[in-house]
Amino acid sequence: MRALLSLAVLPLLHAPVSAQALDGAAIKAMFFNGKPFVATSTTRQRFTMVFTPDGKAIREPIKKAGEPTEKSEGTWKIVKEGFCTSWKAGAPGTCYRLVPNTMIENRWSVMKGAVTVASWTKPAD
After folding, report:
1. For residue 93, is pLDDT > 70?
2. Nearest to 59 by CA among 83, 76, 82, 80
3. What range defines the domain where residue 109 resides?
């Protein structure tokens, strides 16, 4: 019984429950500065992301050599709760919070409500 309980609690250890979400100024300084970083979805798809200070964003899948890639262009904006992105012209944005991962250095969890939808990894400076 204890083993089953331990297994049930294990996924919660990686949740950024106690970490404080980044504010808009920190998000802009760390990620929305024109420098590329890696985003990994919960399905393990990886993307190179570039958010420029003028509100534009580029997302490109990381593929194996020789595989075709297609870039997606979108927009971003800072809001009180975090940030919003839109990847289709005229489409409403989807908003997220960005929370430092307390278990892994240089990694942040992208949160929609209480759910982690992706993680962002920033290269060491």
Report:
1. yes
2. 76
3. 2-121
| Three-class SS state of 56 | strand
Supply the mean pLDDT for the chain.
86
How many domains are there within the chain?
1
Own/partner contacts of 23-27, CB < 8 Å, gap of 24 or more, are: 24/78, 24/79, 24/80, 24/82, 24/83, 27/78, 27/82, 27/83, 27/98
pLDDT tens readout for residues 62-85: 988 777 778 999 999 999 999 999
pTM for the structure as a whole: 0.79
CATH classification of the domain holding 91 = 2.40.128.50
Q: Which two tokens stand for residue 39?
A: 């985003």
